[in-house]
């Protein structure tokens, strides 16, 4: 039975993103994470909404991720697979693998959370045990690891990366898991066929859910750049007053580049989903007053960021010496005023969001869901106003689930069921909240922020992307490349097609992910992969500009840490620093 108190609107917001893993000159994928998350997480997340018609949520799809999903389908359709790992799955004769191909299989096919994605499968664990016994022998171990071993390992890796909803519905997956070993070319081709059909169906599935009014789909500036830093490096110092900055005083032509990312995202979204997005998750929830104003100028009605940004913005807006308890200011949207256009901003509940991202994977689904619901009930009971509270739970929608049993299947199923059955909690989308705020007698209170303190969802600052020697070096290398880009384009010696290729390559280099991975809080193996890819991307920009590649791009920017147990392998971070 519903209580007499105001209800609580739960604004559940899942962010889906992978950077561009392609070498734009060769067309080859350097890392396989886009298609692996597609067959595991993007499929499962759609399934849970399809399975509960009363559930509501917002999904954010970064355009560069969608570009790659469409590219994978195109690869299958034209019969030329440019992802080397995926191509090996369908290699006709596994007895004639090159040393490079064998190394790629072994280096790739044990990546994943072993406790949840490898140990549950006896045959997969057996393959791993064999590798561990032979690994000390170096390359001579290949004398013992046959082509059939490699075929079985490839199949099991892809089976482990299929979503739980796929395992429960696909007879093929069930048959392959039951077979366990000695997989044939026919088996591998069938699995490859399933992979492409899963990827092919993703955009239509989410589009259908939005058409039915069950989800909202938002976007991000196209290649996931940190907009405030493109606009002004000095915005860093709102939250980090003494942070060292890159040698370049600003990113050359940053405002034009920021506009281009926003406009390309809007065009991409309209083409894929039939209309421009109403809202945006700015990459990494990174905002500044200038960045939000720029989005508002482009017709974006709402954006979202982290709780730390709200606290810093309240201090900045009202010159406060202290803040009231967080339940008195956090659970409402805010109108960010100033400039010609206004925009509504949602602020993430760091505690609840991080519980899903980092804590609930260690609990039984019943206990995790009970804790989540209880936390929401306490927030509702503490609401002493006549208006309904809005709780924004915002987090990565892909990387957390490999740490959950069964890819989070039981947790998400029970969570959606408990939320939709609760009398005082209503699941909603960001735009639905915006509409409620516009009603003559709004059921939701909305605060007003005259000023925004620049920052991101991580710690309320930009410390993950700028302010250390290696991150700043990454920015300086990018600024040098942008200067070269501007000079070559101003000379007018490139054709329109060549100019477009250069602009595309520059946009990839401007993405946030490269700077995320620079730092000793990430494992050296992960840092090395992204460091090499970033320098390859910068080198390709110079090649497309028909300029020599600077020698500086031959040296590593960051080495990371030897600690391989970094939280969730570096793919996620908490909104607030651990106590």
Structural descriptors:
alpha/beta, 7-stranded beta/alpha barrel, 579 residues, globular
Structure description:
The chain is of the alpha/beta class and 579 residues long. It folds into three domains: 8-17 and 279-460, 7-stranded beta/alpha barrel; 33-39 and 65-201, no CATH class; 469-569. Helix content is 49%, strand content 8%. Helix 13 links the parallel strand 4 (279-280) and strand 5 (302-305). The radius of gyration is 24 Å and the shape is globular. The two termini are 38 Å apart.
The name CATH uses for the topology of the largest domain is: 7-stranded beta/alpha barrel
- Strand tally is 10
> What is the CATH-assigned architecture of the largest domain?
Alpha-Beta Barrel
CATH class group of the largest domain: Alpha Beta
Rg is 24 Å
Largest sheet, if any? 5 strands, parallel
Estimate the global geometry from the Cα principal axes.
globular
Total DSSP helices: 22
Overall structural domain count: 3
End-to-end Cα distance, whole Å, is 38 Å
In terms of DSSP E residues, the strand content is 5-15%
In the predicted model, the low-confidence regions spanning at least 5 consecutive residues are 564-568
């Amino acid at each position: 039975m519903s209580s007499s108190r105001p209800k609580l609107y739960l604004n559940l917001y899942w962010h889906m993103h992978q950077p561009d893993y392609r070498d734009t000159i060769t067309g080859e994928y350097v890392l396989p994470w886009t298609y692996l998350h597609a067959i595991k997480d993007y499929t499962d997340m759609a399934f849970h909404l399809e399975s509960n018609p009363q559930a509501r949520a917002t999904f954010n799809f970064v355009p560069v991720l969608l570009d790659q999903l469409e590219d994978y389908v195109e690869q299958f359709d034209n019969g030329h697979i440019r992802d080397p790992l995926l191509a090996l799955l369908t290699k006709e004769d596994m007895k004639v693998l090159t040393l490079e191909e064998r190394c790629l299989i072994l280096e790739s096919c044990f990546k994943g959370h072993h406790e949840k994605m490898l140990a549950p499968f006896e045959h997969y664990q057996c393959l791993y045990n064999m590798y561990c016994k032979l690994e000390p022998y170096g390359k001579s171990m290949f004398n013992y690891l046959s082509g059939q071993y490699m075929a079985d390992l490839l199949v099991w890796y892809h089976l482990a990366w299929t979503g739980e909803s796929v395992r429960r519905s696909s007879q093929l997956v069930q048959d392959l898991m039951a077979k366990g070993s000695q997989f044939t070319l026919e088996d591998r081709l069938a699995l490859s066929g399933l992979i492409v059909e899963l990827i092919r169906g993703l955009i239509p599935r989410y589009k259908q859910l939005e058409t039915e009014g069950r989800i909202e789909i938002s976007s991000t500036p196209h290649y996931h750049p940190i907009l405030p830093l493109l606009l002004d490096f000095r915005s860093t110092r709102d939250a980090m007053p003494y942070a060292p900055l890159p040698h370049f005083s600003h990113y050359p032509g940053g405002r034009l580049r920021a506009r281009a990312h926003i406009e390309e995202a809007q065009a991409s979204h309209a083409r894929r989903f039939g209309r421009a997005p109403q809202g945006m998750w700015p990459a990494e929830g990174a905002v500044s007053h200038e960045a939000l104003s720029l989005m508002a100028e482009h017709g974006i009605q709402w954006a979202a960021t982290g709780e730390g940004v709200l606290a810093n913005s309240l201090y900045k807006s009202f010159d406060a010496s202290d803040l009231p308890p967080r339940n008195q200011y956090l659970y409402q949207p805010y109108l960010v005023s100033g400039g010609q256009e206004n925009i509504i901003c949602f602020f993430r509940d760091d505690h609840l969001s991080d519980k899903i991202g980092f804590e609930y994977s260690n609990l039984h689904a019943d206990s995790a869901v009970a804790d989540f619901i209880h936390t929401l009930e306490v927030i509702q009971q503490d609401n002493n106003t006549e208006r309904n509270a809005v709780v924004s739970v915002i987090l990565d929608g892909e990387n957390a689930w490999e740490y959950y049993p069964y890819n989070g299947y039981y947790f998400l199923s029970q969570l959606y069921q408990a939320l939709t059955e609760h009398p005082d909690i209503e699941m909603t989308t960001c735009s639905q909240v915006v509409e409620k705020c516009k009603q003559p007698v709004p059921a939701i209170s909305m605060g007003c922020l005259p000023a925004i303190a620049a920052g991101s969802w991580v710690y309320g600052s930009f410390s993950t992307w700028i302010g250390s020697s290696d991150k700043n070096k990454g920015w300086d290398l990018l600024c040098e490349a942008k200067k070269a880009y501007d000079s070559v384009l101003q000379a007018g010696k490139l054709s329109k097609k060549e100019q477009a290729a250069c602009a595309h390559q520059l946009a990839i280099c401007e993405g946030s992910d490269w700077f995320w991975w620079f730092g000793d809080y990430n494992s050296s193996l992960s840092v090395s992969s992204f460091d090499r890819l970033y320098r390859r991307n910068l080198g390709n920009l110079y090649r497309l500009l028909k300029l020599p590649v600077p020698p500086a791009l031959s040296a590593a920017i960051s080495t990371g840490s030897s600690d391989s147990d970094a939280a969730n392998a570096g793919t996620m971070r908490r909104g607030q620093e651990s106590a």
